[in-house]
Amino acid sequence: MATGVAHPFGKPAEHRPRDLPVSHCHRASSRPNQPPQTAGAFTEVLAHLDRCEDLLGEVADENLRARFELAVRLNHGLVVSSTAGYAAPGAVADYNRARELCSTLGEVPGVAEELLKVLFAIWNYYCSSGDFDTTETICSAIEHQLGRATIRSGRHVLDACRGIEAFYRGNLQLAEELLSPAVAGMARDGIDPSEWWQPHEVMAAACVFLGPLRFLMGDEAGALQAIRTGLARSQPLEFPKGPFSVAFVRTSEASLHRRRHDVPAALAAAEEICRIGERHGFSDWQIVGQIHLSAAKAMSNTSSAALDEMGVALESWRAVGGETLIPWLVVEQASGYLILDDVENAGACLGRALEGMRRGQQLGLPEALAIRAELRLRTDPAATVAAEGDLREAIDVARTQGDVYALLRAALAHRRLLHSEGDELVDTALADAVEAYRDASAFPGLAQARALVAASGRVRLD
């Protein structure tokens, strides 16, 4: 693609064989740099790649043919993942074939580095699909391959991948321990986007997760800085990696602003995701942008229309293979329905969220448990014992995960639903959350918690 395209030859033209695939590989690699910056550029790239593939049979030398096919597969997979999404089956088929070709080519110079790029690309697919057992296996393969080949900041990017897995699994402390040093290491290394076979800029992608992670752990200023860093990395880059990465970062920004209750900022970020997706033919961002736009609209909407639209977009995302963050987003949708007193839809959303969490995405579990407690009481006001069990579990899970935001909300839900005062577990949770958000702006839940802690005269317990 624009600056990171595979080519089977790194030598001057006079040292390359005069096979037609060279011409088409070169055209495929150079075309997206030129206007118009829309899906039409991708169509032309795919046409050249298809023509190159048709001509592979004319290359008599088996080793040379494999090198040409490797270039085709890497570029084709990059185009498909950029346009049809990370979870597009065609992309993983290309990358799996590229992995086979790397094994075939063995000790050919440069192939060990290409295999690293392939493994990182395959990781994207399984991560987007929510298959974290497989991503863990791929990370082990990447670590092994890094012993045979080098790529600038390869180990930092591997740490970022593992940090992202930990984030989805709800292990926020481990995620922070991996992601923050990874981003700092990439910055020190001066990582070159052209060296990576990703639709996105890899450091910007790490910032996508570092932003909400820091906010959930109580660091609002650090969260906003991560977003700014991600945008600063993305905005100067050419099409397609630049706009693709900007949209990716904006997804994190939209989510972050909703939790800060900054509705105008959440709407603006979501609208930009949609614009970028539509302009450039990035189907992932068209769908994901609509999810975030509907979620932001729902914050100031007294009807269920925006939440219903959010549900349609979530199903569209799932239909194209996307699974990551769906449980977390569906918990948010359930909370919205509950605010509107739509117990039926809130319950249905909660069931879908918990099912996804059972498959490994534990992020958002404390809030799901708090919603379950409230649904119990809406259905049967006498179900206080079961509701309290859910809420105390929510507080325990939030603390274990390191999710201060969820800790705050679960403790407030306990106070609101059970009118609890003088409860050690709840009061300590509120005091700890207020301490963690000491320097944060006063979003609604935090302002209430600060007032409660100030009224009690309680200090945080270490």
Description:
This protein is 73% helix and 0% strand. The protein is elongated, with a radius of gyration of 24 Å. The protein is mainly alpha-helical and 462 residues long. Helix 6 (132-145) runs antiparallel to helix 7 (154-169) and helix 17 (365-379) runs antiparallel to helix 18 (384-401).
Features:
462 residues; mainly alpha; 21 helices; 73% helix; elongated; disordered N terminus
How is the secondary structure organized here?
Layout lengths: L19 H11 L8 H17 L6 H22 L5 H17 L5 H18 L3 H14 L8 H16 L2 H18 L12 H15 L3 H15 L6 H19 L3 H18 L2 H16 L6 H15 L6 H14 L3 H16 L6 H15 L4 H18 L2 H15 L5 H13 L7 H13 L6
Helix pairs in contact: 1-2, 1-3, 2-3, 3-4, 4-5, 5-6, 6-7, 7-8, 7-9, 8-9, 9-10, 9-11, 10-11, 11-12, 11-13, 12-13, 13-14, 14-15, 15-16, 15-17, 16-17, 17-18, 17-19, 18-19, 19-20, 20-21
Low-pLDDT runs of 5+ residues are: 1-36
- Estimate what percentage of residues fall within beta strands: under 5%
Rounded mean pLDDT score: 88
Number of helices: 21
Could you say which overall geometry the principal axes of the C-alpha atoms support?
elongated
How many β-strand runs?
0
* Rg, nearest Å: 24 Å
- Series of secondary-structure elements, N-terminal to C-terminal: HHHHHHHHHHHHHHHHHHHHH
Based on secondary structure, the structural category is mainly alpha
Helix content: over 70%
| Termini Cα gap | 52 Å
- Main sheet makeup: none
In short:
This protein is 73% helix and 0% strand. The chain contains 21 helices and no strands.
